[in-house]
Amino acid sequence: MLSLGTSKPTISSQKRHFVLVHGAGHGAWCWYKITTLLQSDGHNVTALDLMVSGINPHQIRDLKINSVLDYVQPLIDFMASLKPKERVILVGHSLGGLGMSVVMERFPEKISAAVFVTAFMPGPNLTYITIFEEVSIL
């Protein structure tokens, strides 16, 4: 449980592995403050650069048109690389919510919790295409 007392925020004594998923126009760098806080409390933190973001070497022309799967492939690869019994807490912002939704469907056994921080959250009546149409990026 997160404690917001007068000192730095702390999370229960059990150490966790947090996977931080950035939003559109960002990279792993945008999580530097929260990464530092979590690591100083002893947690394992992974902040990934999604395709064509941050220091990811791919260029925008490498993405297929409207391909969320290409964009989130680094997250898919990371989740696939986890040990069979390892579970993570996903935290995503903005467009990172789409990637979280993809890996939640593919790797439910590897996720102990997911936190959508003002992030897209697809569901049965809200598809990826609907989201893209709503924000006019198609």
UniProtKB/TrEMBL annotation:
AB hydrolase-1 domain span: 17-123
Short name of one Pfam family: Abhydrolase_1
Signal sequence segment: none
GO biological process: jasmonic acid metabolic process; salicylic acid metabolic process
Cited InterPro entries: AB_hydrolase_1 (IPR000073), AB_hydrolase_fold (IPR029058), MES/HNL (IPR045889)
Single GO MF annotation: methyl jasmonate esterase activity
Name of this chain's protein: AB hydrolase-1 domain-containing protein
Organism listed in the record: Ficus carica (Common fig)
